[in-house]
Amino acid sequence: MHLLGRRRSSPPANVHSASCPCNTSAAGESFSDAILYHGSSMATYLITGVAGFIGSTLARALLAQGGEVRGFDNFSTGKRENLADILDRIELHEADLLDLDALHQACRAVDYVLHEAAIPSVPRSVKDPLGNNRANVDGTLNLLVASRDAKVKRVIYAASSSAYGDTPTLPKREDMQPNPISPYATAKLASEYYMASFYRCYGLETVSLRYFNVFGPRQDPASPYSGVLAKFITQMLQGEPPTIFGDGKQSRDFTYVDNVVEANLLACKAEGKEVAGRVLNVATGQRMDLYQTFQILKRLIGYSGEVKYGAERAGDVKHSLADISRAEQYLGYKPKVDFEEGLGRTIAWYRNRELQPQLSNPNARARGDSC
Ligand code: UD1
Description:
This protein is α/β, with parallel strands linked by helices. It has a single domain (2-215, 257-285, 316-337), classed as 3-Layer(aba) Sandwich (Rossmann fold). It contains 13 helices and 14 strands. It has an eight-stranded mixed sheet, with helices on both faces. A two-stranded parallel sheet has the order 8-11. The chain has a two-stranded parallel sheet with strand order 9-14. β6, α5 and β7 form a beta-alpha-beta unit. α2 (100-107) packs across α4 (129-150) and α6 packs across α11 (339-354). The longest helix is centred in the middle third of the chain and has 22 residues, at 129-150. The two termini are 19 Å apart. The structure holds uridine-diphosphate-N-acetylglucosamine (UD1). Uridine-diphosphate-N-acetylglucosamine is lined by residues 120-122, 160-162, 211-213, 225-228, 231, 243-245, 250, 252, 290, 313, 316.
């Protein structure tokens, strides 16, 4: 295990309220501008998967509200460049979730654990079900054991809407029978059950947030397992046709990353008796099919090319839409950034990144040069 970065010793000067205009960068990026400042919080947070696009966005938000941030990542899918601007303000534990000693060390004196680390891909889990289980189940169980032993206040888990599977009923409600249809979905659901059981058996407060198709700045577009929006946006910005797997009628409740960050902050603040042991959907409550999404991106990007079609993916869910009333009831959660606004911000971020060759050069990334 390697310990990198520095622990911040005093609160950052740049604590902004949601209405502060200086929060928006030239790239239209908004890792904190849509996130409310929830009041002074000197709590210590451990973010697993801190180098991923969700984990690193969470880290920025927590730093902005005065939190102490510790990160945990094995950099298997996370990127050092995602942390480049905050590395000197967080304590980074470079280790694997299968390393229980490293987790015990990372959890020491932590108040809240935000568990974002995962291998987040349905097709990758179909190809490698054992690796999927190690990362997405064994890793979670280790983290729960370490969190219990360290007596952390609460663990918030990045659960997945894939747990609902292909049941025809829409929208998906948390009281519906889960029906996972891929190894990935099965693993994410198993980890949810572990979360709830640690609350029941050991009194460790846990909250599982079922994310619905999260997208936004810093999502990796370069892997064959990348999320569809990161791929489509970067392909279309480069003038290349994206590929729709299947007929394009599959739909998703695409959720901009700031909404997910907001839900995590609310889940930390909520009363334990209200939220502990619960599963809550985190989404926008609206869905868009893939062909419509392509049309919107065409307009926003100014792309004049066509789209290609490929075979439907094994393990793919056809439609996904969340009922978000429970998150509203228990967390006071309301999505602040809608789909099109989120797409605009994401496109602006990738556009800006293309203008900075050291960020878009995969060789530089692999060497970690940008840190
Ligand atoms: C996504 C997440 C997963 C999360 C789940 C539920 C990613 C990589 N996966 O899975 O972690 O738990 O939502 O929230 O973010 N597609 C194409 N062309 C492409 C790529 C994808 O047509 O180039 C299609 C897929 O076949 C699928 C849809 O787009 O029908 C969405 O795929 P993807 O972005 O990989 O997400 P999910 O599989 O829904």
